[in-house]
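From the shared-data thread, chain only:
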Amino acid sequence: MKHDPRIDALLKKSREVIRDCSLENGAIVAANTDKPYTPREAANYRSVWPRDAAFVAAAANLLGDREIGERFFTWIFERPEGLKKERLLFQKYSTNGRKEAGQFQADQMGAVLWCLKEFYGEDRESALQHQPLITLLAEGLAATWNGKFFNVHVTDLWEQEERHTTHTMGNNFTYTLAASARGLMIADEYLPNPLWKEAANQMIARLNEAYGMRQGYFLRNHGKVDDANIDASLLGLTWPFAICAPDDLRMLKTVAAIETTLAANGGVHRFQFDYYDGEGSAQEGGGAWPVLNFWMTVYWMRAGNRKRAEQYFFWVLDHVAEKYHGYLPEQLFADERTGIYPLAWSHAMFVFACDALGYLQR
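Structure, as tokens:
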């Protein structure tokens, strides 16, 4: 098949965006509003979400820009306000490390540990140059876990303030458990610690309980009261957190539910009844997220279905209109809305999708 020139053009743009969002002090912002390609109407995303930054740093590593990640690992240990005292990462930070929002999102800590593994693999000696960071994040995760749920309120990766775990409900976000468990397992690989390993195994046990036998897919939140709304973030159980194999029947059924409910005309939406659109009104409902289309690409390549993987991949390339000037937005809409662009996380996931499809080897 003839190579699509749009891929190389978008890879060039992705490298540009990733470099522009990786600041001199090591901070990685979600979008760099200082750049002339950022539209005036876009919301200010010039903040550090540790989760986004971890995905961006790992994508930069695939592109050969290892220094971006090395600077980020130093920043994430030294800069976030309160991290060394509380051993927790919160929603987002300013580029100098000042806390900008106070929601605790445990998955971000797991994502940073996963990113470290992406950098160093089995090279334990090199990874241990970041031993204080590994220890800090793993101890924070283990200390806030009581064996069945986190003993502080947690919001998931979509940051819906009205949705968080509570002690009274004893509930957990399934994606958060996957990210946290994988992070603790990685920390235990580099610095063996039975408490971290035990916490990871307990999290996986709770995650397995979140499979809804009646619904036939993983619930996004499980506890005394379940949240059965279908959520595309559950792709994370297979990649990058490798808790469920891509051919696990539970995973296949979950992905089928995501495709049936959330993949409207080929573009993947976050979850049922999602109204966030990045423009403030949300009256028309949320758009499709390139992040999730590319996540589907990675999933289906790991499941051995290249045709399905390419459908999700090329849908984005076919729908990035001229109004985005060759960049990837946070969301794609069927109407005139533009939303936020470019989003570093979207470009990072494009890089992962290219890697899964073999396009980075060209």
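The two ends are 14 Å apart (CA to CA).
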